[in-house]
Amino acid sequence: MFGVTVRDHVMIAHSFDGEVFGPAQRLHGATYVVDATFRGPDLGPDGILVDIGRAADELKDVLAALSYRNLDEVDEFKGINSTTEAVARWVADRLAERFAGDPELSGLVVTLHESHVAWASYERQL
Questions:
Q1: What's the pTM value of the predicted model, to 2 decimals?
Q2: Range(s) of the domain holding residue 90
Q3: Residues of the chain falling short of pLDDT 50
Q4: Partner of 123 at 20 to 30 A CA spacing, among 25, 92, 94, 108?
Q5: Predicted local distance difference test score (pLDDT) of residue 110
Q6: 112 lies in a domain?
């Protein structure tokens, strides 16, 4: 299985509902380093799994929809906690829409790094 990863970042604000989140229940900011790993069993006729430039551009475009936004005010996150896991899934689903039908790609993993010691991922098929 081949994998190609591109990286970007996004700055957001959000709050959480639930005692388990302690002080994070209050509005706070986060800067996520975001990795998108595209996976597939074979390379295409050009010897690549996915064009790295396109992958980077698509990730940047997806993240632009969240950049400098309060996720509490984004329709897709209303009524749910915009945890790192939930945001990873949101990003993965948007990227999957953009790469649907690509014959070389079979899967995608999106990882959001909260810090150098904590991160969460969402993996899905394409």
A1: 0.96
A2: 2-28+42-125
A3: none
A4: 25
A5: 98
A6: yes
